[in-house]
Amino acid sequence: MHATTSPSAIAVAPRRLQGPALANVVRYLAVAAAGLLLPAALLALWLTAVHRQWMPEQILPPPALVWQSLQELWATGELLDHLLISAGRVGWSLLIGGSAGLALGFGMGLSRTLRAYLFPTFDVVSQFPVLGWIPLLIILAGIDEALKVTAISIAVVVPVAINTLHGIANIPHTQLEVAAVYRFSLPQVVRRVVLPSAAPSLFNGLRQAVMQAWLTLVFVELLASSEGIGYLMVWGRQLGQLDLVVVGMVVIGAVGVGLDLLLRWAEASMLGWRRTAF
């Protein structure tokens, strides 16, 4: 005889599935609401300070003026032009600094000899902040694009190299021993063993590199630039229009959060197999 399923049992199953999903949605909304409490409080404090004139408008522009300036800059295309210029600098720096960091990290991770020669010097040099490189870079590269790209690339190299090295160092020895038994070549070891095992650390290094690149970009553009988001803030300060400075701050923060969310999504999409496999 064939087993039959009652209609009541069929009706209960979707309810059981909907329960955890609804709980996850509620939990996500609660976390999002909690994260919005502080920005809402700061905005309320800003509005109160402007309304009661705790500071002159030249020092603390009202939110309505900042919003109007943001709309005008976007409508004229000026804001987008500055953003594209800044994004181009970050892109070139990630390409140059990321490639150098990957090469250093893979080299030191796969070769004990190379690590013995390079890591002590790299460890010391990586302690220097990017600010400490600026005087030397100005002498060597001037104050044009070469200075900006070089400074941002230096900021990118360190997190990429360190996270790549740590990712390779944490690979279980048993996996490398199996690769040796099967006589994998170096490219096969990298493709079949190193990359899958070190992928989370590589993504972590990439996220840190993007954030460091974006922060360093703003600094070098504030220091010496005639275009870009940092220059927009300097220009607003020189004109006494602090609403432009606040617009730059808002755009910088929004782009930084957007980049981090994009990288998180890419990591979750590409490394989803780890959650299902383990």
Describe the secondary-structure layout.
Layout: H1 7-51, H2 63-76, H3 78-110, H4 112-125, H5 130-141, H6 145-169, H7 173-181, H8 186-223, H9 229-239, H10 242-270, H11 272-277
Helix pairs in contact: 2-10, 3-4, 3-6, 3-8, 3-9, 5-6, 6-8, 8-9, 8-10, 9-10
What does this structure look like?
The protein is mainly alpha-helical. Helix content is 85%, strand content 0%. It is built from 11 helices and no strands. It has helices spanning 7-51, 63-76, 78-110, 112-125, 130-141, 145-169, 173-181, 186-223, 229-239, 242-270, 272-277. The longest helix is centred in the N-terminal third of the chain and has 45 residues, at 7-51. Residues 8-13 have low confidence and may be disordered.
Pick out its properties.
278 residues; MetI-like fold; 11 helices; globular
In which range does the helix fraction lie? Answer: over 70%
- CATH overall fold name: MetI-like fold
- What is the number of helices? 11
Name of the CATH superfamily: MetI-like
Number of individual domains: 1
The overall strand count is: 0
